[in-house]
Amino acid sequence: xxxLIPELSFKQIERGDTFSINLLKDALSNHGFFSITEHGLSxxxxxxxxxxxxxxxxxxxxxxxxxxxxxxxxxxxYTPKGIxxxxxxxxxxxxxxxHHGPVIDESFxxxxxxxxxxxxxxxxxxxxxxxxxxxxxxxxxVLSVIALSLELESDYFESWVKKGNSLxxxxxxxxxxxxxxxxxxxxxxxxxxxxxxxGAEEGGLEVLSKDGNWIKVAxxxxxxxxxxxxxxxxxxxxxxxxxxxRVIQDKKSESKPRYSIPFFLHPAPSINLKSIxxxxxxxILADDFLNQRLKEIKLY
Length: 300
Prior knowledge:
Layout: E1 7-9, H1 10-15, H2 18-30, E2 33-37, H3 43-57, H4 61-64, E3 77-79, E4 96-100, H5 124-149, H6 158-161, E5 167-173, E6 183-188, E7 194-198, E8 205-208, E9 214-216, E10 224-228, H7 230-235, E11 245-248, E12 258-265, E13 272-273, E14 284-285, H8 286-296
Parallel strand pairs: 1-2
Antiparallel strand pairs: 2-10, 3-4, 4-5, 5-12, 6-11, 7-10, 7-12, 8-9, 8-11, 13-14
Helix pairs in contact: 3-5
């Protein structure tokens, strides 16, 4: 593992281990990426979700496309390959994906849509509801640690995300021709507060360092890779970095299908994203910020 992307025991961070917390602070301020072990996520649940994902992506395109995300700004359902395009890029990413959100009730903001139910994959929704719940819990705890690192109260972000507009994305990257276009997901930053990623051990994820070099992220098996998103960078006045990253096919190895599942932790649409340091900052509504960015990546 490259020392630039530290791998930390989440148990030790939550216990207040000074060495681990200092490594975390360095990672947050230097490049916004780190990975955690001992996080408590169920291995069997992750396996079940990957099985459900593969079953869905193996369906005929005509079936998958009946769950099209068109009309929901990409928020729920299926988005085929060739749609999402990184900001400033002309060539679309080589991936198809499914978007799944929280199980909502009347207490959630009306702008948060319901999930679509995949009839052809019996346990898909149950598995992803459970994974959403577990990753939301872990993500909220990571936010608590980040809040403490910023010398805020540990529950500073809790009200932002409790009924948040978070998103679970199941991604399938088909095999690619690494000679003509090795980019499975072109260089981009995430929109949200923080991202938790499972499946990075399959390889291909790279982070852009401050000196302009691409660093391979190589977490140990079952580790969760965490990174800062644009919303967190915004409210911390760039103290925490939303780092550019990409997914690329190594030209030296055979291209195989790749699956990963990122969880994008978002605040509720009505949260005003304003500086945690400057009282005079008017901020921007989380919903407005999200919609602006969705237009830029061609999902709106």
